[in-house]
Description:
Elements: E1 2-7, E2 25-32, E3 35-43, H1 53-63, E4 68-71, H2 76-84, E5 88-91, H3 97-105, E6 110-111
Amino acid sequence: MKIAVSSTGQDLNSQISPVFGRCAFFVIADVENNKIKNSKAVENKAIMQAGGAGIMAAQTIGNENVNAVISSAVGPRAFDVLNQLSIDVYKAQGATVKEAIDLFIQGKLQKINAQGVMGIGRGPGLGRRRFNQ
């Protein structure tokens, strides 16, 4: 099984990134018999995208043929792409990549469904100031 973790760095000791679409790297681990056999880092080229970073990041993950993604937060459009690619998404926070994968192996991570997806809130929103009050 191949697992991709959104990461701040390039190895298993790196921290999980708080975001998916604009994380610095994805650490991809091959897990066999409940053990990490090997891992590699893939640079997230979507990090500097003006828009659509989550979609591009999800496509990058799809090109790596992973079975699952672990991240702190995944936006709705990235989630849709991952879902279309039959890639399961799991939530983990405040851990290293290795710790998150170990929690996944132990079955302790929450699988995210469409209702659990969080937007980052960069749109215009409805909280605009009203000038005609």
